[in-house]
Design a protein that fits this description.
tRNA N(6)-L-threonylcarbamoyladenine synthase activity; 225 residues; 10 strands; acyltransferase; five-stranded mixed β-sheet; 28% strand; Nucleotidyltransferase, domain 5; globular; 2 domains; 6 helices
């Protein structure tokens, strides 16, 4: 099985290829440049692997939450590529992707994964590692104010992601939160690793069914006007 993953929800831009458990990734920081960078990165990745798009079996993408434009870019590119080769797609939580990337770097769970959502809000979740290529949500992805957080496991001692800007408020809710792993970005490499079991189980859907997850209703409503 050969899968490609696309992740553009934060200031980073990455694409990755999963081939029967082996992962090749291209990753770069590209704030507000994902639209111009992602397709050349896909082409370069496939060239490096000696593959054509038609040889892919599925397209995984970071479905959000994250920057509104960045999430839309990943969905649109995944849809376009999947349509062109008539392959299924599968969206993966960007918070889950960032959590697995943090576990790869030695983070210990349960891990608070939080992105700055602007407007004095956070996208956050709590994950524990499940095997070498999986995560399990103890607190599901949600949008919250730093001063009105959902119930969080008291044993959380480490966090990651751009939500560190609200670390002081988070530590008031979680006194044990003493460590923060920097550069907590979602990555295409962890997107494809998390997606592989779903594709193997037949959970991929038609390209037209690819959906972003914004978590902020007012942003979606504003975009539809």
């Amino acid at each position: 099985m050969k899968l490609i993953g696309i992740e553009t929800a934060t200031d980073s831009c990455s694409v990755a290829l999963w081939q029967n458990g082996t992962v090749l990734e291209h990753f770069e920081m590209a704030p507000r440049r994902q639209t111009e960078r992602v397709l050349p990165m896909v082409a370069a990745l496939l060239a490096d692997a000696g593959l054509t798009p038609a040889q892919l079996d599925g397209v995984a993408f970071g479905r959000g939450p994250g920057a509104f434009t960045g999430v839309r870019v990943a969905v649109a590119v995944a849809q376009g590529l999947a349509f062109s080769i008539d392959r299924p797609v599968l969206g993966i939580s960007t918070l889950a992707s960032a959590a697995l990337a943090a576990f790869d770097r030695g983070a210990q769970g349960p891990l608070l994964t939080a992105f700055d959502a602007r407007m004095n809000e956070l996208y956050l979740a709590v994950y524990e590692q499940q095997g070498s290529d999986g995560v399990h949500a103890l607190v599901a992805d949600c949008l919250a104010s730093p001063t009105t957080l959902p119930p969080l496991p008291a044993q959380v001692q480490m966090g990651t992601g751009s939500g560190e800007v609200h670390r002081e408020a988070l530590q008031r809710a979680l006194p044990g939160l003493q460590q923060w792993l920097p550069d907590g970005y979602p990555r295409a490499a962890t997107i494809v690793r998390l997606a592989a079991p779903g594709f193997a189980a037949g959970e991929g859907v038609a390209a037209a069914q690819a959906r972003p997850v914004y978590l902020r209703d007012q942003v979606i409503q504003g975009a539809r006007q």
